[in-house]
């Protein structure tokens, strides 16, 4: 009975992973023309805007994160020793991906706040603190999960008595709430009927 439940859970996770990979691949193909236009809008290869750099980082670090995570999960040739060396790769890339997305949100919020120096310093301090929390909660107490029973895959699991990984998502959501709140408060200072002003602030790049 217990084995049947584990197999059903594993199958469900497989389907979810395949679905997420399919959606990500479809989105990548769909946005390739816009990506190419974005690159062509840059002054030169050696003089690209901060927004372009952040776009490249979040787009391709996300791809690497998906590949690394799913390679470990779907692989059938991991030994226990190889898993010991690989199991932290996916959590590390997940934190790096989160850091980049938070930098993007921070830059946008800083621009919406009219590049207020105090808000910029506050955002930086909040970012550094929460990033430290994210690294600690996502990497600490991790252990390799080498599934030999079904296939020789390699993922990581929380080895502590208290599940600490959820603190990672709590810290990430807290940062999102802070930057959205700051952005909303500053946008309310503008005429709420002036949609052009609000949209220009939201979509202004960081050049």
Give a verbal description of the structure.
With 207 residues, the chain is mostly helical. It is built from 8 helices and 2 strands. The protein has helices at 2-30, 32-40, 50-74, 80-86, 89-112, 117-139, 165-187, 195-203; strands at 142-147, 153-158. The chain has a two-stranded antiparallel ribbon with strand order 1-2. Helix 1 (2-30) runs antiparallel to helix 3 and helix 5 packs parallel to helix 7. The termini are far apart.
Estimated structural class: mainly alpha
Globular, elongated, flat, extended or rod-shaped: what is the shape? globular
Q: Spans with pLDDT under 50 lasting ≥5 residues?
A: 1-8
| End-to-end Cα distance | 59 Å
Taking strands numbered 1, 2, ... along the chain, how are they ordered across the largest sheet? Answer: 1-2
Please give the share of residues in helix.
over 70%
- Tell me, rounded to a whole number, the average pLDDT: 83
Along the chain, the helix and strand elements come as HHHHHHEEHH
Counted beta strands: 2
Strand content: 5-15%
Number of helices: 8
The biggest beta sheet reads: 2 strands, antiparallel
Compute the gyration radius: what is it? 21 Å
């Amino acid at each position: 009975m217990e084995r049947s439940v584990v197999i059903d859970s594993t199958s469900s996770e497989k389907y979810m992973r395949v679905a997420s990979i399919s959606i990500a691949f479809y989105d990548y193909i769909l946005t390739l023309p816009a990506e190419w236009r974005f690159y062509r809008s840059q002054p030169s290869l050696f003089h690209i805007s901060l927004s372009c750099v952040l776009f490249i980082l979040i787009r391709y670090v996300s791809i690497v994160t998906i590949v690394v995570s799913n390679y470990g999960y779907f692989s059938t040739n991991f030994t226990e020793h190889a898993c010991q060396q690989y199991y932290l790769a996916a959590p590390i890339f997940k934190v790096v991906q989160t850091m980049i997305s938070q930098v993007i949100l921070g830059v946008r919020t800083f621009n919406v706040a009219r590049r207020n120096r105090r808000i910029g310093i506050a955002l930086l301090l909040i970012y550094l603190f929460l990033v430290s929390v994210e690294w600690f909660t996502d990497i600490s107490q991790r252990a390799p999960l080498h599934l030999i029973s079904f296939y020789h895959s390699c993922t990581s699991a929380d080895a502590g008595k208290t599940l600490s990984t959820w603190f990672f998502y709590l810290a990430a959501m807290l940062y999102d709430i802070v930057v959205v709140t700051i952005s909303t408060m500053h946008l309310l200072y503008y005429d709420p009927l002036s949609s052009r002003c609000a949209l220009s602030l939201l979509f202004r790049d960081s050049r």
